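TA notes, week 10

Several of you asked for a full example with nothing omitted. So below is the full record: structure tokens for the whole chain, then the designed sequence directly under it. When grading your own attempts, check the secondary structure regions first.
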């Protein structure tokens, strides 16, 4: 069977991660426990998750002409991702995320840098790539007009679209109409609902949403019935990137099977495995690790 082709249009960041026992109060200086840099950005994370699970992944985005940008491109290449459409832009630095981890909690500040240079006009240059894909994966760390343009292109060519509406932004009705699936977390879903105008809009939103609820699993509607798929129980070390792993894994499985429930179970398992190591991408499983975990889970059920 040929590998599914997944195009990810979105962000690439270098994650600057500090681990601390507690977060400082205003004006306070604390001594932290450790500092590391990890490749990140919701777009790149989802691309890595999908590539490790066997998709042929094309990443489209922008980095700065700096050390982080070159490192991020190189790391994508090592993951087997086609990174030729990640452009090095002059005059803007590579996006970064300043992440503080304390206990089971993370706090993230993103500085978009080159990610915000992804314009609708530039996205249009990648129409041929989007058209050749089995699925387009989008998030909201690039300008919303560019997300809209990519969705228009995919919709026109009947390519399924998964939109991870993170970090939260208001979505137009047209964008919601064009996407096949939205994957908000609980907070994002509540915000989307509260900002959607009519009852009709709310129904459409609910029908297209797969709501990720952390340890409570995922929830979605099938024939207007609420279905919950439980999370895979694990000892979490760092939850950064769990949502991205979920999206990447769901995209691969759905592109292959077109089966929603099966793909959500698969994505839940991948997201569970991903939180057992530090860094957004470090714990993302490959196909062999997924098979082993599935066999183990089945053995425990028997
Ligand atoms: O979803 C996790 C990601 O969000 C991090 O890798 C960070 O870069 C931010 O974009």
């Amino acid at each position: 069977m040929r590998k599914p082709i997944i195009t990810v249009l979105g962000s690439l960041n270098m994650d600057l991660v500090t681990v601390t026992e507690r977060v400082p109060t205003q004006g306070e200086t604390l001594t932290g426990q450790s500092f590391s840099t990890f490749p990140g950005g919701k777009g790149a994370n989802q691309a890595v998750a999908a590539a490790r699970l066997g998709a042929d992944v094309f990443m489209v985005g922008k980095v700065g002409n700096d050390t982080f940008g070159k490192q991020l491109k190189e790391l994508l290449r090592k993951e087997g991702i086609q990174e030729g459409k990640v452009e090095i832009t002059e005059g803007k630095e590579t996006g970064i995320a300043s992440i503080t981890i304390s206990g089971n909690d993370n706090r993230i500040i993103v500085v978009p840098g080159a990610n915000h240079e992804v314009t609708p006009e530039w996205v249009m240059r990648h129409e041929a790539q989007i058209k050749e894909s089995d699925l387009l994966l989008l998030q909201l760390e690039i300008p919303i007009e560019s997300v809209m343009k990519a969705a228009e292109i995919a919709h026109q060519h009947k390519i399924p679209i998964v939109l991870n509406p993170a970090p939260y932004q208001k979505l137009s009705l047209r964008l919601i109409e064009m996407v096949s699936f939205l994957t908000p977390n609980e907070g994002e879903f509540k915000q989307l609902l509260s900002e959607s105008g009519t009852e009709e809009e709310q129904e459409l939103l609910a029908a297209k949403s797969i709501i990720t609820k952390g340890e409570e699993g995922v929830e979605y509607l099938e024939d207007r019935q609420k279905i919950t798929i439980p999370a895979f129980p694990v000892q979490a070390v760092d939850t950064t990137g769990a949502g991205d792993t979920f999206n990447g894994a769901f995209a691969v499985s759905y592109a292959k099977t077109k089966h929603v429930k099966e793909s959500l179970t698969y994505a839940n398992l991948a997201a569970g495995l991903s939180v057992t190591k530090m860094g957004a991408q470090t714990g993302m499983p490959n196909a062999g690790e997924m098979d082993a975990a599935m066999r183990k889970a089945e053995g425990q059920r028997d």
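The first strand starts at residue 5 and ends at 9. Use that as a sanity check on your answer.
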